[in-house]
Amino acid sequence: MLTDVNDILKKNQLSVTDSRKSILDLFIHSNGALAHADIEKQTGEKFDRVTVYRTLQVFMEKGIIHTIPTSDNSIRYALCKDDCTGGHHHDNHVHFICKICGLTSCLDSVTVPEVRLPVGFRPLEKQMIVTGICEGCQ
Amino acid sequence: MLTDVNDILKKNQLSVTDSRKSILDLFIHSNGALAHADIEKQTGEKFDRVTVYRTLQVFMEKGIIHTIPTSDNSIRYALCKDDCTGGHHHDNHVHFICKICGLTSCLDSVTVPEVRLPVGFRPLEKQMIVTGICEGCQ
DNA sequence: ATGCTAATGCAACGAAGTTGCAAAAATGTG
DNA sequence: CACATTTTTGCAACTTCGTTGCATTAGCAT
Ligand SMILES: [Mn+2]
Ligand SMILES: [Mn+2]
Ligand SMILES: [Zn+2]
Ligand SMILES: [Zn+2]
To answer: How far is A12 from chain B (nearest CA, A)?
Structure first.
């Protein structure tokens, strides 16, 4: 897995800019998923809000990051595995959100289980979010 | 299951007002889950935005409705089963979102399956959202 | 019917997200 | 490296969404 931000950006045919390098670096060295606000803060408000929005959008399109929906309507973003490419994400892992500290983790080792749906419903993608208490907050 | 709006409101110790009656009625006679905007439109903009927000909030607190998180950051609301009371919801069913028409359904007959989490993660609630194509859109 | 309590509507505000456009930075070619 | 071309950025303006305080109105119990 590539960990050098320059290589990742080039591999995805993106020009290498300060904002993209900083934000991607943030994802790589971050423990859990990041909300938009986290990114603004953790980059020291060095970049415009709009730039952060556009960077996240471009990373999404290239399959570099994926979103995690939360019940409080605040989307978190996390790195994809290597095999996610533009448009098609293959992250079928469970997500965990800690009720205490808010840490949002990709449980890469836990795959979303299959379910049988009633007739008439054709499933395409499935997502599972578990809330509870994380290791650090026990 | 109570279907008369007056009875439901009284059972939950809520005063019976026009907005609460209309909005609750909307939920009872609606096929899928409703977004905030749907409610504003479908009540003919008869009530103030703020009233809709407060009504949904109060219905949530009383366990009359529950939320369904979506990846596009737009919360949907749907009726709870009878045994959901203030603070404690028991809707552990799968939710289905149609990619074509957007219909969001509570699959009351499909329970969210169990998963084994890595050590350190203590689960409290779990949620599963399946996206795909609904009966009407096949 | 009357008084008390709770809910509503309005206005104002703040946060979040989008768009157009000019300035600045990145890329590739000689 | 210098240059022209393309892409990205930052700013300003704007829209949408959600929240709060307060005066008015409606619901409820006596
Ligand atoms: Mn993930
Ligand atoms: Mn439901
Ligand atoms: Zn925690
Ligand atoms: Zn459909």
So the answer is: 24
Maximum CA pair distance of chain B? 52
Q: How many CB atoms lie within 10 A of CB A39?
A: 22
Q: Nearest ligand, CA of residue B84?
A: 2
Q: Domain of A79?
A: 5-137
CB contact under 8 A, B134 and A112: no
Give the whole-angstrom CA distance, residue B136 versus residue B138: 6
Give pLDDT tens digits for A61-78: 999 999 998 888 789 999
DSSP label of A93? E
Distance CA B32, CA B38 (A): 11
- Measured CA to CA, the distance from residue A109 to residue A107 in angstroms comes to 5
Amino acid at A50: V
Largest CA distance in chain A: 52
What's the one-letter identity of residue B79? L
User: Could you give phi then psi for residue B109, rounded to 5 degrees?
Assistant: -85, -10
Helical segments of chain A, H only: 5-11, 18-28, 36-42, 49-61
Q: One-letter amino acid identity for B84? A: C
Residue A32 DSSP class: S
Question: Using an 8 Å Cβ cutoff, are A7 and A21 in contact?
Answer: no
Chain A positions touching B70 (Cβ under 8 A) are: 69
Number of domains composing chain B: 1
pLDDT tens digits along B32-64: 999 999 999 999 889 999 999 999 999 999 999
Could you tell me the two tokens for B125?
């609630």
Residues forming a β-bridge with B95: B106, B129
CATH code (residue B17): 1.10.10.10
Give the strand pairing for B122-133 and A122-133. Answer: antiparallel
pLDDT band at B21 (very low <50, low <70, confident <90, very high): very high
